[in-house]
Amino acid sequence: MNTLLTVANLKKSFKDKEALKGISFEVYRGEIMAILGPNGAGKSTTIRNIMGIMYPDSGEIHFHQQSGKGIPKSKIGYLPEERGLYKDVKVMDILLYLADLKDYPLDKAKERIFMYLKKFDLEGKENTSVEELSKGMSQKVQFIGSILHEPELLILDEPFSGLDPVSQEVFKEEIASLAANGTAILLSSHQMNLVEQMCDRLFMIQHGEKVIYGTLDDVKKQYANFKCVLHGENPPALLEKIPEVDRIEYSGNRSILHLPKGIIPHQWLKQLPNELDVQELHINRISLHEIFIDIATDKHLVSQEGGS
Amino acid sequence: MQNSLKVAKWELKRNLKNKTFVIGLFITPAIFILFFFLGSLFSDSDDTDTAENMTVYINEDIGFFDEIESINKEQDFGWDLQTTDTPQSEITEVDEPYTAYLFINEHSLEENRIATYTSEEADPLFPGQLQALTVPLQVIKAEASGLSQQEINQLMEPISFVEGTNQGEGGSPSSIEENSLFDLDNPWETMIPGVFAGIIMLSITFTGMAIFQSASQEKKDKIAEIILSSLTPSELMQGKIIGYFMLGLIQVAVFIGILLPFAIWQTDIPILENLFVPRTIFFVLIALLSYLMFASIFVGVGATMSDVSSAGNLQGLVMMLPFLQFVVIGPVISNPDGIVATVSTYIPFTAPLTLLIRLTLLDSWPWIEVIISVAVIVLSIYVFMKLAGKIFKVGILLYGKNATPKEIWKWIRM
After folding, report:
1. pTM for the model
2. Are A272 and A187 within one domain?
3. How far is A78 from chain B (nearest CA, A)?
4. In a domain, A129, yes or no
5. What membrane topology was assigned to this protein in its record (chain B) (predicted)?
6. What ipTM does the predicted assembly reach?
7. What are the tens digits of pLDDT across the range A180-209?
8. Residue A30 and residue A110 in one domain
9. A–B interface: beta-carbon pairs under 8 A
10. DSSP secondary structure, A219-263, as one string
């Protein structure tokens, strides 16, 4: 793997609170790596440290294939969680300014602005004032600003928040296409379904510590046990007789049987009692969303949500 | 530095495309010109009320009439001069308005009293104008007493009180004398550079106040983090300071570009001759230092506010700092060597304008005070820039709320 960014043993404290307790991960070229975690887990702090907007107390952030020290800011694209644009300027002017700050040639930037405006259904909006744009349009312009200069590393903090499903799809496609062209993408999001669809690897963080780190498949193997969704009129006493079941959720005629780790689905199916009423039956792994909730609640995190 | 210049260019471009700024750019000199015309309109109307020229009847027997006529012409008194034989005894009061009688003869010269009769309604300036006749009359008197021309010149030379004349009896008194006479001859020599630098100072300082808004705008529009992904907080801060300095200079250029030709056209003040002198450079340098000091304060405190309209007490107080200078203007002008002037020279916020006024008004510069004052300003700039950098770095990312003084203090100590 062609590593672009290495974060090693990153620590950061605010007052007495340890926001990051020595986290380490790598981001490779051409991959989409998700950084996940509940609010206040330390995602944005990690990203801000990578961007040099904050400075870590200890640990290392290393950009590979860079000559010289420091952060190669012109090679990084960044879309922060809290974002906006100057209101009283034209779309073209602000995008050119952002490209200029990244030392990107302005004539080339102009070409790419037109290309992206067309791609994001904003054709003809280059001379529109930012304050006249809708929220979604403004989000698109911010996104264009972060990728205009052909960054090698693109950091997206909650890129889908506030977007309608159509725009989400457009963003998703563009992110995937950038990764396919070799851009390393570090993405933070709460939309687990999107992360699940897009990401190659993920890093889950809680209370400033690593909880999960690996490819999506590995994570699923490791954490996502099977569950069996059963439709039928079955009394709880009957369901409780079924072997190798961790817990059961009831919802009318629908029951969800959570199976323990290491189960082999087709062998487990053979153990089902004959008197079971089966109208419909699905067996699949639990989703990333459920893993997230599961891990968060196990650690009693959900009740502590708030802040970032 | 390159990034700072990019920010500066952006701020410049953004403001120059802003209609409010462009209108403001031209409206200030336009208001000045309007007030000038309004002023002259009112003074014209005043003139028509009072400027009926005085008719002055002269009864004299010492051959002084021609001298009076030439003084009247030189000083532009506008008197209508007439000789008269009417004896003094016949005049008890003057009924005709704007009329005066002067009785000048050897007897009156001996007594040093010139009998004068003025109508009740008269030019209020007339008594003052009469004083212009004293010196020539004294010369006539001196000539009559048989003094030589040289003796008369020596006698008539004005005596001036000059500070520090006891520093050696050699050549220095004459040089001081030369200086003071020179200054008396040409008050514009110090005035023009002083006013010029004063305009620059006030103009760029007030343009600098826009930095306040610009810094808090970064937070309001939530763009600070995007910008800071490309440059450092110091570069952003420096860029703003440079950008608004350039905007201030544009404002000054437009202001002076419009007003200077107007002033040359409408007044007899020898502006150009006195503008391009070395002291202008020094005065403009003081103006520049003043800008840097206030700009660093504004940019730092601006970064603590989420919105200019919601400025807290602390921020409001800081916004008032440049106005502090105006409080001391009165005492400094009335006594440029007084205690208020001296103390104000050492207080960072009042030092630039006080220094400028004092150097404009004083004949001999208190060099030690000037050096200390400039040192105070330069040191303040250094300190304020450092503090602003610390505040800006954290404050600019604190979206949605104004920083409290306690928080600001914490950032400074970090």
Report:
1. 0.71
2. no
3. 7
4. yes
5. Multi-pass membrane protein
6. 0.80
7. 999 999 999 888 888 888 899 989 888 888
8. yes
9. 60
10. HHHHH--EEEEEES---HHHHHTSSS-SEEEEETTEEEEEPPTT-
pLDDT in tens, B303-329: 887 766 666 677 777 778 878 888 888
Task: Dump pLDDT digits (tens) for B375-384.
Answer: 999 999 989 8
- Judged by a CB distance cut-off of 8 A, whether residue A299 touches chain B is no
Contact A88 B18 (CB under 8 A): yes
Whether A240 is covered by a domain: the verdict is yes
CB contact under 8 A, B13 and A84: no
CA B91, CA A250: separation in Å to the nearest integer?
127
Boundary (domain end) residue, out of A221, A256, A274: A221
User: Which domain range does residue A264 map to?
Assistant: 225-285
Is residue A304 domain-resident?
no
Residues from chain A contacting residue B10 (CB–CB below 8 Å): 97, 100
Any domain includes A297: no
- In A18-77, the residues whose Cβ lies within 8 Å of chain B are 48, 51-53, 73-74, 76
A198 and A105 belong to one structural domain = yes
Nearest to B226 among A78, A93, A100 (CB): A78
CA neighbor of A81 nearest in space, from B236, B304, B392, B222: B222
**Among A298, A292, A263, which residue's Cα sits nearest to residue A196?**
A292
Residue B13, exposed/middle/buried by CB under 10 A (0-12, 13-18, 19+)?
middle
Shared domain check, A230 and A215:
no
Domain finish residue from A190, A221, A252: A221
